[in-house]
Amino acid sequence: MSYIFITNKEKYKRVGLNIALQRKLKNMSQIELAEKVGISRTHISNIEAPNMNTNISLEVIFNIADVLEIPVSTIFNFN
């Protein structure tokens, strides 16, 4: 099995896009997700924006996964 290298910038982009997709599949707005996670809507927006490299803590990622009722691995799916 070979590993395809992707940059950290691309990883941030994919994490954000995965969160956005899962949020939309749950018919949830950025405001709703932010409130349930305990962060600002601006922070969620920055995380989801493909052109932003926004730092995000594991705690926030875990909380997002819990709120969206998805495995954390879904957020880190880079395929």
Quick one: how many beta strands? 0
Total helical segments:
5
Major sheet details: none
Which spans of ≥5 residues are poorly predicted at pLDDT below 50?
Answer: none
Cα shape = globular
Instruction: State the separation between the terminal residues, measured CA to CA.
Output: 14 Å
Q: Which series of helices and strands comes N to C?
A: HHHHH
Strand content: under 5%
Radius of gyration: 12 Å
What's the pLDDT, averaged over the residues?
A: 94
List keywords for this structure.
79 residues; mainly alpha
Helices, strands, pairings?
Layout: H1 8-25, H2 30-37, H3 41-48, H4 58-68, H5 72-75
Please characterize this protein's 3D structure.
The protein has helices at 8-25, 30-37, 41-48, 58-68, 72-75. The chain has 79 residues and is mostly helical. The longest helix is centred in the first third of the chain and has 18 residues, at 8-25. It starts with 7 loop residues before the first helix and ends with a helix. The mean pLDDT is 94.
Please summarize what this structure is.
With 79 residues, this protein is mainly alpha-helical. Helices cover 62% and strands 0% of the residues.
